[in-house]
Write a structure and sequence with these properties.
Elements (H helix, E strand, L loop, with lengths): L2 H26 L2 H17 L10 H19 L18 H8 L3 H11 L5 H8 L3 H20 L4
Length: 156
């Protein structure tokens, strides 16, 4: 890794670590596993630096590494409690919303977290997940619609 690129990765780690952990926690549903995923993702970014071609932002490339590490951990050992913590160290305040988000398909949950908790734009999310910005928009729209439907279906 060039010295300047390594410095960029170090700055990203230092400046955005909590955001990476927050999103990884939302995916893994466990802050300890999320910390491991962030560490693994950044280590992979350093090890695989030659694969970064500069076609998109370095941050999106690192996000891909972190999200993939978090998804790998989730698939290897799904949590018994399917209610994600979406803000890093504390569970979401509304347990009903937490349960509804947990019920979304994996891609919808991941796009939702990257957009609303990591504050990435559609292009960056597309770079992270290897999908087009249009697919990001459609997936985010589907997630929002699914959540709206679950609230509309609640008997009063």
């Amino acid at each position: 890794m060039t010295d300047s690129r390594l410095a960029e990765v170090e700055a990203l780690y230092r400046d955005r670590f909590r955001v990476f952990v927050r999103v990884a926690t939302a995916i893994t549903r466990d802050e300890e596993r999320a910390n491991g995923a962030v560490q693994e993702g950044f280590a992979a970014a350093v090890r695989q630096q030659r694969r970064f071609r500069g076609e998109g932002p370095l941050e999106a490339w690192v996000w891909r590494m972190v999200v993939n590490a978090a998804l790998k951990q989730l698939r290897a050992e799904p949590p018994a409690d399917l209610q994600p913590s979406v803000n890093g160290s504390a569970p979401m305040a509304d347990p009903e919303l937490r349960t509804r988000i947990a019920a979304l398909p994996e891609r919808q949950r991941t796009v939702l977290f990257l957009r609303h908790f990591a504050d990435l734009d559609y292009r960056a999310i597309g770079d992270v997940l290897g999908i087009s910005p249009g697919t990001v928009g459609a997936t985010l729209n589907a997630a929002h619609a699914a959540l709206r439907r679950t609230f509309e279906e609640v008997p009063e």
